[in-house]
Amino acid sequence: MSMTYFTFFTMFLLGIMGFTFHRIHLLSALLCLEGMMLALFIALSFWPTQLEMLSYFSLPMFMLTFSACEASTGLALMVATTRTHGNDHLKNLNLLQC
């Protein structure tokens, strides 16, 4: 395994570990998801250059666009839950209540 693949794998794995072990606040979960998306974006950006293919250069831009949409939706949900519940703790959020 080359050093670049190891770095991307480690970045993604740290995002998953942070998401599973530090799930107290919604903001920390969103930051871990954003770190995972950033690792995938960087890996997809380097993938066409290593294969010397020019046809896959638009794929990272689509992923970056979806990542920005995911981040804005997550922050909007965090603001809404903080206003209604008073905090952003994940254990206080119950999807069955209105």
Give the ordered list of helices and strands: HHH
Instruction: Name the assembly state.
Output: single chain
pLDDT averaged over residues = 82
Radius of gyration: 17 Å
CATH architecture: Orthogonal Bundle
Backbone structural class: mainly alpha
Strand portion, in percent?
Answer: under 5%
Largest beta sheet, briefly? none
Assign the CATH topology: Helix Hairpins
CATH hierarchy class name: Mainly Alpha
Q: Low-confidence runs (pLDDT<50, min 5 residues)?
A: none
Gap between N and C termini, in Å? 49 Å
**How many domain units?**
1
Give helix % range.
Answer: over 70%
The general outline is elongated
Total of DSSP H or I helical runs spanning 4+ residues: 3
Number of strands: 0
Keywords:
mainly alpha, Helix Hairpins, 3 helices, elongated, translocase, NADH dehydrogenase (ubiquinone) activity
Tell me what the structure shows.
It is a single chain. With 98 residues, the protein is mainly α. It has three helices and no strands. It is elongated. The mean pLDDT is 82.
Helix/strand layout:
Blueprint: H1 3-21, H2 26-51, H3 59-85
Helix pairs in contact: 1-2, 2-3
